[in-house]
Amino acid sequence: MYLGLDLGTSGLRGLLVSEDGTVVGDATKSYDVQSPKSGWAEQDPAVWVGACLGVLSKLATGFPAEYRALKGIGVAGHMHGATMLDHSGKVIRPCILWNDTRAAKEAAELDETPGFRELSGNIVFPGFTAPKLLWMARNEPENYALVSKVLLPKDYLVFWLTGEMSSEMSDASGTSWLNVEERAWSEILINGSGMRRDQLPDVVEGSDVVGQLSVERAQQIGLSTDVSVVAGAADNAAAACGVGAFEEGQGFVSLGTSGVILAAKDRYAPDPSTAVHTFCHAMPMKWYQMGVILSATDSLNWLADNLGHSPEELADLLPDKPFGPGAVRFLPYLSGERTPHNDANTGGAFLGLSRGSDQAALVQAVMEGVSFALRDCLEALHSTGTSLGSALVIGGGSKSAFWVQTLANTLGITLHLPAKGDFGASMGAARLAMIGAGGLSPQEVMVPAAIEVEIKPDRVLTDAYDVSYRAYKQTYEAIKDLP
Where is the active site (predicted)? Predict the structure, then answer.
């Protein structure tokens, strides 16, 4: 048996998987994000530990025989978070998360530094890790002086499980400290952001075994110290492993808290000017490119909070099939935007409201606005020479038939819903454990997901969505500099 842990922004999932890939157990534990100031997003790593203990307890109780048969654990997690530890391994302050924009000024400074884009293969975005440490040096010098090691969120869980500090290629790619082409830390990038190499753990591949469960942890969670823990992967790289997207031309669209269009690559081919991310994949000598929007289902969650309904209740206001673009336009820039704008300061907006704009119209506008933002990502990928003729669609938003069909109409490509539900990142983490701890080959493990539903663009409506998308693009240009 193998366990995949997925450390998400709003909760942790654990997936028990047998060697043949069958899911035998599933457990989740939710938690919140703290925003002490506007634009800030933080979590105390103790919350992750508590959630992990809760998930493991549920699995041990619900699936005792399978749980005791664990051979390996893999961990996936949200990227870019800065988890700072002192010399004793104690957390210094809450982790600064991927959607935190406080370091926009520092990111711009590093991005303008000669060599940063060339070595890292990416724009230095405000959510990346390096600018957060530079912000901390300037604004929290007493905390910064204590920093002995910086771990990414899922790497902190690996440390908690094993007592060993590590990072791995796919996650480290989003720090602005990694030479993504050479798959190694760059002294130039590290020193250029004011850090030292000894403040970062060694970087390894996703299926590499970091260590065994420590004696303390094994006793606490009721397992043997013979259980191996692999390095794991960043959430989107893990999701790609979970659905078998690691060969050139394979990819997916994720309607999660953030939105992603990802395409696997056999070679390193960056184009930072497009604001497309070029990162190492979790498998050796594989890369991937992706466009990222910061508020996908988070936009619907925001609307639900303000209307006093659940996201599911709002989604149910719409039919299964769209009838064409709505009159209300929504810009989903609630936390700024990455691809293609790299704009931490822009804000979201509703346009075209009238007295006839009811809740269903607002929900439709949100789903269309997120779809148009993902079309921006696809256009940016195309500009780098990367193309997708079809893609899997995963994430919580994929449960809405209206949203998925709107997305297909907007992107103009065929989308596929996987047959076994949304187990992408946790399944990918388990698969990496099968390779590293179980000795299975990638060809045996990284098989494509079975397809349950195929969603083709509605050719009667695609022209209308294209016109609406063009208007959406012009809207951003018109309002981006408004105070």
Answer: 235
Per DSSP, the three-state class of 12 is: strand
Residue 277 is labelled as binding a ligand: no
Which is the catalytic residue, given 100, 235, 271, 298?
235
Per-residue pLDDT of the chain (483 residues; tens, 9 = 90+): 999 999 999 999 999 999 999 999 999 999 999 999 998 999 999 999 999 999 999 999 999 999 999 999 999 999 999 999 999 999 999 999 999 999 999 999 999 999 999 999 999 999 999 999 999 999 999 999 999 999 999 999 999 999 999 999 999 999 999 999 999 999 999 999 999 999 999 999 999 999 999 999 999 999 999 999 999 999 999 999 999 888 888 899 999 889 999 999 999 999 999 999 999 999 999 999 999 999 999 999 999 999 999 999 999 999 999 999 999 999 999 989 989 998 888 899 999 999 999 999 999 999 999 999 999 999 999 999 888 889 999 989 999 999 999 999 999 999 999 887 556 899 999 999 999 999 999 989 998 888 999 999 999 999 999 999 999 999 998 888 877
Q: Where are the domains of the chain?
A: 2-231, 244-418+450-483
Is residue 44 annotated as a catalytic residue, yes or no? no
> Tell me, which fold does domain 2-231 have in CATH?
Nucleotidyltransferase; domain 5 (3.30.420)
**Domain 244-418+450-483 bears CATH identifier 2.60.40.1180:** no
Q: Is 79 annotated as a binding residue?
A: yes
